[in-house]
């Protein structure tokens, strides 16, 4: 059914408003059933260079277009995405595997971002500030940086792209976008939408290909002034060091080891719902997914029993079948990585309570599926409690009290999202203050960030920048301080103020 939604068998790069063919390509595989969905171009450095040249020229004009008019394009984009929401969602499920309900949620996140950032076209606030000297006016304003590069992952192929490209475009930049090769269809669809929405040519350029070529050229290109990256820790760190050498601004979001804390006073039914949704939804393939449960020892047994009962109810399979709640794992390499952690967990002495294996019944034959897994009696320092597995795997860690729970939560190298279930108001306020993550939830799971708030984290999750929210504009703009002296004489700051 969804196959017929595709308009082409092979995607093309989108450079300077043209659909440009590349010779090399790779198959895009539906992780639910192993079928080839489409071919994705594997570009070389030439494509990036052409895109940057086009972007440089186009950006100069675009920066002069009043921001409310730039925003009109985003309003059109939001409207078109809204009209095509079902089509986009089905295509997203085909390339990424996430179940349709979640695909719809992700597309909605992109629609929300379009309208939110379009609104920024009428704000893009700077500041007026009193000057030190009489008859002098001072202000700071946001300016576009020029050509920016965005590198997006396969797990949220449309939402994350909107978090980055929409603020960049409304602020007056031109974008070079390298989508993940596993999930190129959302980039293709979004570029078509931008084209129809009236974006001038050269402002959004999509170059498909491997990170080792396309990404590498982007990172080293003198005319790309910003790199905004979401993806793996190793790649992000390499990008950061390469950008550092060139004094290029870089914004990184590189995952988490997110925990749900369940206190002895928690509403356990609610906690179970929150854990199941944020740990096993999207098969645990969210940066924000819960992969640790830190539980007060007095409620540990009851929580385990309820979790087990709910895990058994989870239906697993192709996301286009709406009776399934958990979809496939993106590819074999990701599946192998998850499987490797089963052995590690057992060797470390964790007790496997549920799952722990690859699903290999006939109906799963050509896809990649992993059983929702629960390890219990884990300690905070085990590798399964410390390392990002990026699959439907939870490590349950018992603790004795609230302070220990906070300490265990913070005792990992990541700091993206955390959550606490408690009915004690004092604990709520202490937790939101002390949990060392960029996102904190109270009485909800670790996933489900809204686009008008900053998205990102502390420590190994990133480098201090944020996606989405008004804060994303900081990545794609430079601050300019402007002083206008209308005194008619030379006034020297710091000297004539005495
Ligand atoms: C991600 O996994 O990188 O907060 C993005 C959430 C979603 C976005 C996740 N709104 O779970």
UniProtKB/TrEMBL annotation:
UniProt record similarity statement: Belongs to the aldehyde dehydrogenase family.
Record-linked Gene3D superfamilies: Aldehyde Dehydrogenase, Chain A, domain 1, Aldehyde Dehydrogenase, Chain A, domain 2
Pfam family for this entry, one: Aldedh
Catalytic residues in the record: 253
Description of how the protein assembles with itself and partners: Homotetramer.
Record protein name field: aldehyde dehydrogenase (NAD(+))
Domain Aldehyde dehydrogenase: 19-482
CDD domains per record: ALDH_AldH-CAJ73105
PANTHER family, A to Z: ALPHA-AMINOADIPIC SEMIALDEHYDE DEHYDROGENASE
Signal peptide feature range: none
Keyword line: NAD, Oxidoreductase
Source organism (scientific name): Lentibacillus salinarum
Enzyme Commission numbers on file: 1.2.1.3
The UniProt record lists the keyword Amino-acid biosynthesis: no
InterPro entries for this protein: Ald_DH/histidinol_DH, Ald_DH_C, Ald_DH_CS_CYS, Ald_DH_CS_GLU, Ald_DH_N, Aldehyde_DH_dom, ALDH7A1-like
């Amino acid at each position: 059914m969804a196959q017929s939604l595709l308009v082409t068998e092979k995607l093309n790069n989108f450079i300077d408003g043209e659909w440009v063919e590349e010779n090399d390509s790779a198959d895009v595989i539906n992780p639910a059933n192993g079928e080839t969905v489409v071919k994705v171009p594997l570009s070389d450095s030439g494509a990036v260079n052409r895109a940057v040249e086009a972007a440089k020229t186009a950006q100069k004009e675009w920066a002069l277009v009043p921001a409310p008019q730039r925003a009109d394009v985003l309003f059109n984009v939001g409207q078109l995405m809204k009209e095509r929401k079902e089509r986009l969602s089905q295509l997203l499920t085909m390339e990424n595997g996430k179940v349709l309900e979640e695909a719809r949620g992700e597309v909605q996140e992109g629609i929300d971002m379009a309208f939110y950032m379009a609104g920024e076209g009428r704000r893009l606030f700077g500041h007026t500030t009193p000057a030190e000297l009489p008859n002098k006016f001072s202000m700071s304003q946001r300016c576009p940086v020029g050509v920016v590069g965005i590198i997006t992952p396969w797990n949220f192929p449309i939402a994350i792209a909107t978090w980055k490209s929409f603020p960049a475009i409304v602020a007056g930049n031109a974008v070079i976008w390298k989508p993940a090769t596993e999930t190129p269809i959302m980039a293709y669809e979004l570029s078509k939408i931008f084209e129809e929405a009236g974006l001038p040519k050269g402002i959004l350029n999509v170059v498909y290909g491997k990170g080792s070529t396309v990404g590498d050229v982007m990172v080293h290109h003198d005319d790309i002034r910003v790199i905004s990256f979401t993806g793996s820790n190793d790649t992000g760190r390499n990008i950061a060091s390469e950008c550092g050498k060139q004094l290029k601004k870089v914004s990184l979001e590189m995952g988490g080891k997110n925990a749900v804390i369940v206190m002895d006073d928690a509403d356990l039914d609610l906690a179970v719902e929150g854990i199941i949704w944020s740990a096993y939804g999207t098969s645990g393939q969210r940066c924000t997914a819960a992969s640790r449960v830190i539980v007060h020892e007095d409620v540990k047994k009851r929580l385990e029993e309820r979790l087990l009962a709910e895990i058994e109810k989870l239906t697993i399979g192709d996301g286009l079948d709406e009776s399934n709640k958990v979809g496939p794992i993106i590819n074999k390499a990701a599946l192998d990585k998850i499987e490797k952690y089963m052995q590690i967990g057992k060797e470390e002495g964790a007790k496997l309570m549920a799952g722990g294996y690859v699903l290999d019944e006939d109906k799963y034959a050509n896809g990649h599926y992993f059983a929702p897994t629960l390890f219990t009696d884990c300690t905070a320092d085990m590798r399964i409690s410390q390392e990002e597995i990026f699959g439907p795997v939870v490590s349950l860690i018992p603790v004795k009290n609230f302070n220990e729970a906070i300490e265990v939560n913070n005792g990992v190298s990541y700091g993206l999202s955390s959550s606490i279930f408690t009915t004690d108001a004092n604990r709520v306020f202490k937790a939101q203050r002390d949990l060392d993550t960029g996102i904190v939830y109270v009485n909800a799971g670790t996933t489900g960030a809204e686009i008008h708030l900053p998205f990102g984290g502390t420590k190994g999750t990133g480098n201090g920048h944020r996606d989405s929210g008004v804060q994303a504009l900081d990545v794609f703009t430079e601050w300019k301080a402007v002083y206008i002296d209308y005194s008619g004489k030379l006034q020297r700051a710091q000297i004539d103020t005495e």
